[in-house]
Amino acid sequence: MLLSPLFAQTILPRAGVTLSTSSYEPYADFAEKSEKELLTGFTVGVGYDFFISDRFSLQPEVNFIQKGSKRNDIAYPDSYEYKLVTGYKLNYLEIPVLVKAKFGGVTKFYVTAGPTVSVGLSGTYSLKSTFAGLPEEPISSKVKFSKRPENYDGYDQFADNRIEAGVQVGGGVLLFGKVNVEARYGHSFTGLFDDTDFKNRVIQFSASMPINLF
């Protein structure tokens, strides 16, 4: 009985929504006005909560997660408004390894923190522009985690770095002993491109249902 809390194990199927942005500023030297929008996506996966003590546990996870960036840049050449709306939606397989600290009485609270490694799977890119209120032909293409072919003249975006390293911090509450509701913030330290600053920033809101193995 004394050993059971130390070796208790729980599986955590989880799902939620993501709100993401990035450090990407493609038209910083051109735009007179710029604003970022949070890009909505989703995440789904499973965690494995291995109890170290009654207050601390280690929680590795494997998650599918959507990240990306959307921004509006506006300039006024010859007093006419020129607006560019740029969007990236990126799909990753992400593996966080989180340390969880628990506290509280009847209602259980917890905080988490730890490193993450993400593997880029696929993505989409879009560019919409208007000049003097008149729309120009939009661009919609793929983001490919591969080397750009020689003499390629299409619109696909080729990401230099498939692997992303970062960190997550968050907190949550266990409701009724059955459902975890939590929020997290993820911050990447490595960029999508070698020659452009594009580091992902992601807020997650998720729920999980603990399943005790023993």
Task: Please give a structural write-up.
With 214 residues, the protein is an all-beta fold. Helix content is 2%, strand content 67%. It has a single domain (4-212), classed as Porin (Beta Barrel), CATH 2.40.160.20. The longest helix is centred in the first third of the chain and has 4 residues, at 4-7. The mean pLDDT is 92.
In the CATH classification, which architecture applies? Answer: Beta Barrel
Average pLDDT figure = 92
Order of helices and strands: HEEEEEEEEEEEEE
Structural class designation: mainly beta
Radius of gyration: 21 Å
Tell me the strand order in the biggest sheet: 1-3-4-5-6-10-11-12
Roughly how many Å apart are the termini? 12 Å
CATH topology: Porin
Total number of helices: 1
Please count the beta strands (DSSP E, at least 2 residues each): 13
Name of the CATH class:
Mainly Beta
Q: Quick one: overall form? A: elongated
| Number of domains as seen in the coordinates | 1
Task: Enumerate the spans where pLDDT stays under 50 for 5 or more consecutive residues.
Answer: none
Describe the biggest sheet?
8 strands, antiparallel, barrel
Strand content: over 45%
